[in-house]
Amino acid sequence: VIVHDVNELTEKLFPIVEAMQKHFSAGSGTYYSDSIFFLSVAMHRIMPKEITQIIQVDLDLKYKTNIRDLFDEFDNFPEGAVIGIAREMQPVYRHTFWQYRRENPQTKVGDPPPDGLPGFNSGVLLLNLEAMRESKLYNQLLEPTMVQKLTEKYHFKGHLGDQDFFTMVGMEHPELFHVLDCTWNRQLCTWWKDHGYSDVFDQYFQCEGEVKIYHGNCNTPIPED
């Protein structure tokens, strides 16, 4: 077991993700303490080189299968992919990308699966640190100028930290991601159903198959066995 001090991690993270925070944080401007919500984005630059793969998960999860099975998903990464992540199961990014969608009526950005690009949910993340270190493209995308360029292109202003960054990058470079089946991150939050999107909500929320991990996001109760 290796214990990492949260203050030390934040200190290392801050210079890398400072430019992202004004685009993907809830507050206006850049908060030093917020940088921990971007840990996954730069994990490959913080962890020792001998650590090549990491699963990073939220606390509000319930496991219905052996976590070892999730590690097997690393073997399914296509060439060029650096991160494994499931799709967002609410129309949150349909909302966030409203201006881009209005200007580009033919876009799949923000549309529901299977053909649309609903964005990602970072509750369950597979980080191939070795691939992240080696990917010239991924590391270029961490540069402040690239972040600025993409946020301007998509008129993007989010508040969900790393999840927003991965979602925006995924619209531009889907090849960097291995999309996990929804059963590996079965999100339960239905907030957007009651906030203007009841007509399309179920297109995002449906998930076929036996659930492997429940995610009780937005404080949603997780079903008992």
From TrEMBL:
Transferase in keyword set: yes
The keyword Isomerase is assigned to this record: no
A Pfam match: Glyco_transf_8
Key words of the record: Transferase
A GO biological process held by the record: protein O-linked glycosylation via N-acetyl-galactosamine
Gene Ontology terms: cellular component: endoplasmic reticulum membrane
Gene Ontology molecular function: xylosyl alpha-1,3-xylosyltransferase activity
Listed name of the protein: XXLT1 xylosyltransferase
Organism name: Steatornis caripensis (Oilbird)
Gene responsible for this protein: Xxylt1
